[in-house]
Structures are given as C-alpha cells and as structure tokens.
Amino acid sequence: MKAVLLELLRCPTCSGRYRLELDRLVCSYCQAEIPLQSGISLFSDVPPDITPSEKRLRGAGMDTPWRCANTRFLAGEAQRIAGNAIVLDVGSGRGDFSSIFTDQRYLAVEIYPYPEVDVVCDLTKVNPFALGSLDVILLMNVLEHLPDAMDFIQNLSGLLRPGGKILAAVPFLVKIH
Ligand SMILES: [Zn+2]
User: What is the CA radius of gyration of the chain?
Assistant: First the structure.
C-alpha cells in the first residue's frame, strides 16, 4: 500500500484515522476493519456481475481518437500540476492515465481490484477520503455511467484542497448508457 494513503484515508463510519496491520486497515477510533488484498484496500464489495477489462497496450497509433484526445488533454493539464500534488483517478480502470502523472502522487480508485488499483471503492456510496485532502480528481469517462453526475461532483469537490481541481471528460458521440 502506498504510504500517502495512510494520510488520506479515513474511516467512513467515524472519520477516524487508520493504522496499518498485516492484511487490513484498522480504524484507530472505532476499530472497524478494512481488508487489504495484495495491498489494495477494499472499501466496497466487488459487484458479482462485473466483467473485468483486459489490460490493453496503449501508445502512439494504438489508441482510438477519443483515447488520444483524453491523453493529450491530461498531458497538457499535468504540466500545470505541482510535482507533489495528489491526483486521484476515480474510475481508473487499468490505470491507463497513470503514466501521465509520474511527477505527481497518482492514486487509482475503482470498483474492481485490478492490480493497478490502490483503493476499491464505490464513491457514490461510501467515501473513505479525508475532506480537503486532494489536489486533483480525475473523472475520465466516468460521469456518463452515473444517474446523478452533478450530485457526485458536488460530493467529490469536498475532498479537494482549496484551489484543487476536477479534470473530467465525457464521451459525446456514443450510444446512450
Ligand atoms: Zn472508525
């Protein structure tokens, strides 16, 4: 588990800090436990009906035009983000954008424990992050999957430090989800 997570994670029940034990996080206040699976903290149950995505090779000439546009957009933004900034990639999938944020402290959140993921959590249902703790939140191709995107953005904005930002992209020319 990345060390910075111990600074950021809070017990969703009581907002207590966690201490790290061998295979779990334990809330220092209410003693609630969060299991760790290969270092990935599991704050929500993995949906049984999910079809895991394959890790795809990415790179010049290998991506769809939409993916290329995503990458260009984030690469431009990354140059304006401080080197020690905490970047939370919400709905990270297989962490395709992680290589853009090698200067920053990149963390991946998903509802499925892919090896590239740091925290398994359905943030529409439970929040394990300290308020005002993040510099950047990525919402790349996520909002179109949510029934109430504006509510979600509102809730996430509370996790940002003053001056923090949300970087989001939503596909336009696709079938209705
Ligand atoms: Zn607690």
Answer: 16
* Residues 3-37 pLDDT 10s: 999 999 999 999 999 999 999 999 999 999 999 99
Q: What pTM was computed for the model? A: 0.93
Q: What is the dihedral of CA 164, 19, 23, 89, to 10 degrees?
A: 0
Ligand 1 center–CA 18 separation, angstroms = 8
CATH number of 39-48+56-169: 3.40.50.150
Cα 33 to averaged position of ligand 1 atoms, centre (Å): 8
Kindly report the length of the chain. Answer: 177
Distance 126 CA to ligand 1 centre (A): 13
- The Å distance, Cα 104 to ligand 1 centre, comes to 29
